[in-house]
Amino acid sequence: MSETRSTIGQRKADHLALCATDEVAFRNKTTLLEQVRFVHDALPDLHADALDTSVVILGKRLRAPIVIAAMTGGTEEAARVNRELARIAEERGYGFGLGSQRAMHVRTETAGTYEVREVAPTTLVLGNLGVVQARAMSTNEVDDLLGKIAADALCIHLNPAMELVQPGGDRDFTGGLDTIARLVRDLRVPVVVKETGCGISGSVGTRLRSVGVTHVDTSGAGGTSWVAVETKRAEAAHDAPARALGEALWDWGIPTAVSVGMLAPLGFETIVATGGIMTGLDVARAIALGASAAGIARPALKALTAGGRDGALAFFDAVERELRAAMLLSGSANVAALRKAPRVLGSELRTWLDQA
Amino acid sequence: MSETRSTIGQRKADHLALCATDEVAFRNKTTLLEQVRFVHDALPDLHADALDTSVVILGKRLRAPIVIAAMTGGTEEAARVNRELARIAEERGYGFGLGSQRAMHVRTETAGTYEVREVAPTTLVLGNLGVVQARAMSTNEVDDLLGKIAADALCIHLNPAMELVQPGGDRDFTGGLDTIARLVRDLRVPVVVKETGCGISGSVGTRLRSVGVTHVDTSGAGGTSWVAVETKRAEAAHDAPARALGEALWDWGIPTAVSVGMLAPLGFETIVATGGIMTGLDVARAIALGASAAGIARPALKALTAGGRDGALAFFDAVERELRAAMLLSGSANVAALRKAPRVLGSELRTWLDQA
Amino acid sequence: MSETRSTIGQRKADHLALCATDEVAFRNKTTLLEQVRFVHDALPDLHADALDTSVVILGKRLRAPIVIAAMTGGTEEAARVNRELARIAEERGYGFGLGSQRAMHVRTETAGTYEVREVAPTTLVLGNLGVVQARAMSTNEVDDLLGKIAADALCIHLNPAMELVQPGGDRDFTGGLDTIARLVRDLRVPVVVKETGCGISGSVGTRLRSVGVTHVDTSGAGGTSWVAVETKRAEAAHDAPARALGEALWDWGIPTAVSVGMLAPLGFETIVATGGIMTGLDVARAIALGASAAGIARPALKALTAGGRDGALAFFDAVERELRAAMLLSGSANVAALRKAPRVLGSELRTWLDQA
Amino acid sequence: MSETRSTIGQRKADHLALCATDEVAFRNKTTLLEQVRFVHDALPDLHADALDTSVVILGKRLRAPIVIAAMTGGTEEAARVNRELARIAEERGYGFGLGSQRAMHVRTETAGTYEVREVAPTTLVLGNLGVVQARAMSTNEVDDLLGKIAADALCIHLNPAMELVQPGGDRDFTGGLDTIARLVRDLRVPVVVKETGCGISGSVGTRLRSVGVTHVDTSGAGGTSWVAVETKRAEAAHDAPARALGEALWDWGIPTAVSVGMLAPLGFETIVATGGIMTGLDVARAIALGASAAGIARPALKALTAGGRDGALAFFDAVERELRAAMLLSGSANVAALRKAPRVLGSELRTWLDQA
Ligand SMILES: Cc1cc2nc3c(=O)[nH]c(=O)nc-3n(C[C@H](O)[C@H](O)[C@H](O)COP(=O)(O)O)c2cc1C
Ligand SMILES: Cc1cc2nc3c(=O)[nH]c(=O)nc-3n(C[C@H](O)[C@H](O)[C@H](O)COP(=O)(O)O)c2cc1C
Ligand SMILES: Cc1cc2nc3c(=O)[nH]c(=O)nc-3n(C[C@H](O)[C@H](O)[C@H](O)COP(=O)(O)O)c2cc1C
Ligand SMILES: Cc1cc2nc3c(=O)[nH]c(=O)nc-3n(C[C@H](O)[C@H](O)[C@H](O)COP(=O)(O)O)c2cc1C
To answer: Any one cellular component term from GO for this entry (chains A, B, C, D) (predicted)?
Structure first.
């Protein structure tokens, strides 16, 4: 058990280090968000300073439709990252997602590395657990885990591709939907079902809706490849078969734009578009396809790692500035209007959406 | 106020200098005019010297469907450019657009830099004002500004993208349509509504038609990027945020071919296709999509800067020669016939036109 | 007049020299024949040595559906080329086209350079005249010109693009259809209407059919660009405007595959697919689109220039071998079957054919 | 006759040597399997170790839907390869195809090089004969040839493209369908009709069905080009015409994905998708298009040549691991489910399937 614990810690450390580089990006697959082209409005009846970028997500109003997506927890370094980013979320009015609380469950002494309420008292804070871990826990245990960090909601993450590549990863994915159904029904906070870089399909969305899920996070393909992360770790560990499998699955997944487009008609209350969101234009494009807000993981981490708090702030400034520009130049006074802004989709994106 | 004045003067000087290079072109977006392919007519029943390239625009007959598009005014250099190009317009029978008369309005002593009637007594001369500036002026003030230069019509330019990137640029774009409606109704000369490099959409076109506008200038994407111009200025001024926003919006806009295609069915009397027109083939393609004439800004300036009056003349010779060749080889005796010449559109252009 | 005569001679010499290189090929346009993909027949009920490649064209049976297309005449060098290629045509059972007989008309002493009957007594020999030249001649004069060389038919060539670029080229293209109508009606031999590298459209085809034309030669875009040839000559003559126009029109024209596809449904008796035919696969593809036979000009000249008679023979051997392979592997016992062989068209070719 | 014999031996040796390199791959044509993109299932209700990859083919259950496709026989080297790969097939539960038994028929003393039953007693073993050779043999002779190696079925291979290029190759392909009809009717074991790298079309499939064929192997384009193999041999033999024809036909054929898609609706019991299968993802994609199993020839040989038995085992391990991953991540518990897994086809593949 102590081995498992230190294993988790080491993996978390590996993840942060690898994700500070660009070696874990998708290779030959993009989000396809670049194929969403807004039709310029030359005559917007708008004041640039009076645009309303706010959205209400999971009962809380965000000043801008941005969620800092789940990344870390469990180590000192993780604690620092969580607190820095949560503080920015509080100041800027973004949502904030904690990394998987599995470490916190296994080693309760790491709970403090997840505590961000001190710096983010009013922020929308999202807890996080893998569906396989959640399956093994009682609802009370989960409630407890969330209570300790005063989370507003729980992200249940799905990551079968990554697990398959990870040496010693989970192999039993049965009962996932039942677990989600139970938590949606019994948990005191709302549940967001979230992928981690391979996207949620229309078919999975339909199954989720059938058990009452109303919040999803696409975490689609085109940004960080979690398969890539585990492939890098397999490479370092000289595990040739895992590495080979990882190379083959590196680009597996549904592009983020496609995942948003697939989920949009299914009646979800919240669709967070995560996966490869790098700019404010990406945020705008995801919203135009039907997202409620956009989630950003690795680009935020990179900005923080490279430039500290100021670097992260500058990154988010740029994202917001671009988002507002896209709103103004598409004639959208607020996020609801942006969702209906005229746009032209490229043929690759249409091919996906027509068939899927 | 004197600062504002010298600021305008400096900006104008910067613009001319930057636009003599190709660093301010769109990067990854073209006009899509190259996707208009004429179907060769091997058996035209035509004499190459009897083709009629003339068009009537805004009540005046142009010998060729070419407008030298709005560029400058307000400085000595600007005066020289205006006079050289206006003289060519007179000799060749083109239309001629003056640059924004804002400078002339703010510093009346610069009025002379806009006066081209001496060299262009019969030319179709177009005045120019930004919609935001026009909003702040009475109709009489505008009439006065136009009267001083004996303009045949007023171009009201729209440029929200550029303003957003420009440090200290306009941020209040409200009331644009009302301003245009007022001027269309009350001004003594006709009004042309003109973009400056991002294009006019079908939706904007419809709004313009609804307040009585009958003349438009697409000034679409694919040629000069005004966002690029301001980005270069931001770079020189070490304004990192403005520069970053500019980089993100560099290619924003509706390709010229798309803008023409969108506006063609809306019943405008005049559609000037400006934005990235570089050759006589481009002129012909724009007309085949529904334009009345084509506007050329920076390529004319570049020819003048690089080769003086002779260089500019040679440039226009080449444009006309190509236009006539395209007419002959598509079996078009005149511009009206060219508008209906058989042609094949590439798939990217069709994708835009089908969806927009 | 003697100047005109030596001018023609010089031009013919220039043409042969330039066409021995690849500098006069289209640059960014292909024949689109490469987008015709046969569907392999793994089980052809055929003997490779029993395939029938013969076709009857203009009343004569060719052993293979190949015409050596019009190239030259008027100089000693031209005479040599004509005789070498005509001898091969006779031996191999191909059709053979003479170059424009304008030189022979202007300088009757050059008639001998067109005489190929000595070496090609039974070959299908095609005379050649530009439509503009033919317009100025009486039907008797034309008959006479053809009689001297014992031609089986007359190719009337159309080449407005080339003429526009050629300094001193024709500019009056009126009356072309009338001229053709007269010759079709009154001439003792059949008339083939032929382009020279820009292709014949469906619309031109319809006009030709309306005056009784039943034989055409596409000579479409993608092979030799005659505009390019004249552009190279303008370059050598330091004629900058002609050169610039030539650069702009270099790739003008209808790809050969498109021209064949456009003409196929119009009820012509003969469609010779010329323009960029380089291989036996190209011959097969053109036939599958509806051609009766394929014409080859410059590739034959190049083979002869580079390798003499043996080189030319080897070239045609390869073409025939490939054609027979394509027939066998598409399950086609003869040319009529090949015309119906299953095939898949690429999207660029379909785009052209759908719209045109 | 002894010459013919040693010729066959030499050819077999050449084949193995050339196929150990990548110089005999298709150049500008792929299998198009890469255009089959599975739609990720983030929530598969599956255990990775409980996936059922087995299929029943030709009456025998394979543990995984993999057939080691026909390659060799007739030489000592061939015997070694056959035994090594057959042993792996037995251990792993794959099908195993022997190379053409022509050598064994011509030189009965080479029969031993085809005997694999000692190492593969329960394996699905496929005999192999070219349709042209089979035509010349009585059904009894064929039965005899199969009996000697205790084959479960006979692959009749079709390879007209290769024969055309091969100096001295077959030229008479008549009577193929009759030969197949006879063997299907009279032979004691089932017949699989198999191409060798150019694919089987829908039209050939229909003809095969009409004479009672129920098993096919696509052996489509995009993997090993047998034309390429013979072109390399022609090159070595300084046979310029054969080499030129080979270069022209190098990429001839129907991409494997297209062949599978064409055959899927025709009611075959077995469709083995061979030709360019390199990975487990390829196996999965072929099955999703309708294949029963996938055949692998040269990649298996290469793995064996480069890494011996261990190399081959590692190669197949990787293939199986990827196949299982694709099954799990597309939510497919077994091969039947995989055949119906949601997927998106790229436009090139759709173009082929729509037209063919
Ligand atoms: C360092 C790092 C750690 C992550 N850890 C988690 C996690 O614990 N739980 C989770 O749901 N997603 C996790 N993710 C996935 C992200 O939330 C996100 O879905 C994915 O990275 C795609 O977004 P991106 O392209 O913006 O990075 C992690 C991502 C990164 C970069
Ligand atoms: C140096 C320069 C100055 C310009 N100034 C104005 C202006 O004052 N008013 C205006 O309506 N457009 C102005 N424009 C925009 C042009 O009229 C035109 O819409 C745009 O440059 C696209 O055309 P092009 O690609 O041919 O340059 C200017 C363009 C240039 C190059
Ligand atoms: C050297 C040369 C001379 C030619 N002269 C004539 C001519 O006199 N009359 C004519 O109809 N076409 C002429 N052509 C055009 C060819 O007949 C043919 O239409 C064109 O070259 C396209 O075929 P290719 O791509 O096989 O060269 C000539 C072509 C070449 C290469
Ligand atoms: C070395 C070698 C020898 C082959 N010999 C035969 C053969 O005798 N009979 C046959 O039907 N196919 C033969 N093939 C063709 C293969 O069975 C297969 O159809 C083709 O190579 C395409 O599969 P691949 O891309 O996996 O190599 C041979 C292939 C190779 C590489």
So the answer is: cytoplasm
Report which ligand 1 atom has the smallest distance to the Cα of A219: 19
**Residue type for position C110:** T
B103: left (phi over 0), alpha (psi -120 to 50) or beta: alpha
Enter the tokens of residue A163: 């697990």
Do A55 and A95 contact (CB within 8 A), yes or no? no
Q: Which chain D residues are Cβ-neighbours of A156 within 8 angstroms?
A: none
- What domains appear along chain A, each with residue ranges and CATH number? 5-355 (3.20.20.70)
Q: Are C330 and C338 in contact (CB under 8 A)?
A: yes
What is the amino acid identity at position C102?
R
pLDDT of residue C4: 60
Q: How many CA atoms lie within 13 A of C42 on its CB side?
A: 32
Tokens of D42: 């983030």
The string over D292-311, giving b where at least 16 C-beta atoms fall within 10 Å of a residue's C-beta and e elsewhere, is bbbbbbbbbbbbbbeeeeee
Give this complex's ipTM.
0.95
**Looking at chain A, how many residues does it have?**
356
pLDDT in tens, D134-164: 999 999 999 999 999 999 999 999 999 999 9
CA dist., res. C230 & res. C245, Å (int): 10
- List residues bridging with D66 in a β-sheet: D294
CB contact under 8 A, B173 and A43: yes
Q: Please state, in angstroms and rounded to a whole number, the distance separating the CA atoms of residues B215 and D134.
A: 78
Residue nearest ligand 4's atom 22 by CA: D275
Whether the predicted pLDDT of D6 surpasses 70:
no
In this structure, what token pair is assigned to residue C107? 């300088």
> Helices C202-210 & C176-186, crossing angle to 10 degrees?
50
| Interface contact B158, partner A, CB < 8 A | yes
What's the rounded Cα separation, in Å, for the pair B72 and B78? 5
Angle C282-C283-C289 from CA coordinates, rounded to 5°: 90
* pLDDT tens per residue, range D232-269: 999 999 999 999 999 999 999 999 999 999 999 999 99
CA C313 to mean position of chain CA atoms: 19
Give yes or no for residue C15 CB within 6 A of ligand 3: yes
Residue nearest to atom 11 of ligand 1 (CA): A157
| Predicted TM-score (pTM) of this structure | 0.96
Cα(D169)–Cα(D160) distance, integer angstroms: 9
Output the CA B69–ligand 2 centroid distance in Å: 6
Calpha distance B139→B184 (Å, rounded): 10
Residue A60: DSSP 8-state: E
Q: What is the helix (H) or strand (E) element at residue A274, kind and residue range? A: strand A270-274
| Residues A286, A297: Cα–Cα separation, whole Å | 15
D90-101 b/e (C-beta count within 10 Å ≥ 16 → b): bebbbbbbbbbb
Residue C161 in tokens: 């693009």
What's the gap between Cα B171 and its chain centre? 23
Q: Is B58 exposed, middle or buried (0-12, 13-18, 19+ CB in 10 A)?
A: buried
Helix axes D2-19, D226-236, angle to 10 degrees: 110
Alpha carbon of D164 to ligand 4 centroid (Å): 17
